[in-house]
UniProtKB/TrEMBL annotation:
Family: Belongs to the LysR transcriptional regulatory family.
InterPro entries assigned: LysR-type_TF_proteobact-type (IPR058163), LysR_HTH_N (IPR000847), LysR_subst-bd (IPR005119), WH-like_DNA-bd_sf (IPR036388), WH_DNA-bd_sf (IPR036390)
Domain HTH lysR-type intervals: 1-58
One Gene Ontology biological process: DNA-templated transcription
Protein's recorded name: DNA-binding transcriptional LysR family regulator
Regions that span the bilayer: none
Pfam family, one: HTH_1
Organism: Jannaschia seohaensis
Recorded superkingdom: Bacteria
Keywords: DNA-binding, Transcription, Transcription regulation
Length: 293
């Protein structure tokens, strides 16, 4: 397979959009479409499902993704070796929702900092949208990809969420065999008028009622569930930190969302670009690892 075509594949897979990938790759969308078609012919498989919402990976696309990312990593390692393996120096601020900021980014940031002692990383954990135009952060992790502004957006990874509760809460309340059985149970969730991203409005999707215990923070919601406060939606990558919780309706309620990494086009210098690459690699690896624990 042609490496240039795999670069196009990665660009479209991460952004979920031909137009957004074209901006990042500095190619026109028609060229990208032809390159994707050429790659699909070479692979003998359809790699993307096209819909009005954008481009989504097929099963074959998901199988190809880690191999393409491996080739990308080897190419970057070669570039670093030719450049003398120069360590990164400077400071980069990363804004992120508190769930990923508390349970994924610390490990990723610690490894990056360990490899680059001259690099400083700030993690700003706030449940809101960051204004990159006003330099509130150099890089921002978002759920829904921003649509406006001079921004560069790449998809980081999909992540999964489950309905969960303490075992002793479940033992003390009526059994839950279907979604209808959620009625009457105390629900933990976001404060409805403080949901800053429509993709975080989970409860309507699972047929649950307005939360009886609510917070604008995913980490506080996890604390409420760990305290036996009720039933709520939890990121799967947070569950290893809460062994007292168990999934509820695991065969029926399993949500999927995606994280995106965004930066302003005026902050596209080599330091931020390299940190973005390292961050993306680390987040993908750690989310996949934590979700399987």
């Amino acid at each position: 397979m042609d490496w240039d075509d795999l670069r196009v594949f990665l660009g479209v897979a991460r952004s979920g959009s031909l137009a957004e990938a074209a901006k990042g790759l500095r190619l026109d969308p028609a060229t990208l479409s032809r390159r994707i078609a050429r790659l699909e012919r070479a692979a003998g498989a359809t790699l993307f499902l096209k819909s009005p919402r954008g481009y989504a990976l097929t099963e074959a696309g998901h199988r190809l993704l880690p191999h393409a990312e491996g080739m990308e990593a080897r190419a970057r390692a070669g570039e670093a070796a030719l450049a003398g393996g120069e360590a990164l120096r400077g400071r980069v601020r990363i804004g992120a929702p508190d769930g990923i900021a508390n349970y994924v980014l610390p490990g990723v940031a610690a490894r990056i900092a360990g490899a680059h002692p001259g690099l400083g990383l700030d993690i700003v954990a706030l449940p809101r949208v960051f204004d990159l135009g006003r330099r509130e952060a150099d890089l921002a992790v978002t759920v829904s990809p921003p649509k406006a502004g001079r921004l560069m957006v790449r998809k980081l990874c999909d992540y999964r969420l489950s309905l969960a509760a303490r075992r002793d809460y479940l033992d003390a309340h009526p059994p839950i065999r279907t979604r209808d059985d959620l009625r009457g149970h105390r629900i933990v969730g976001y404060i409805p008028d403080m949901i800053f991203d429509a993709d975080l409005d989970y409860l309507g999707e699972v047929g649950a009622e307005t939360p009886g215990l609510a917070s604008n923070s995913a980490s506080v919601q996890l604390g409420l569930l760990r305290a036996g406060g009720g039933i709520g939606i939890v990121h799967d990558f947070m569950l290893p930190a809460a062994p007292e919780l168990t999934r509820v309706l695991p065969d029926d309620v399993r949500l999927t969302r995606a994280y995106h990494l965004t930066r302003h086009r005026d902050a596209a210098g080599p330091l931020v670009t390299r940190v973005a690459d390292l961050l993306a690699e680390g987040v993908r690896a750690d989310v996949a690892r934590l979700e399987t624990e």
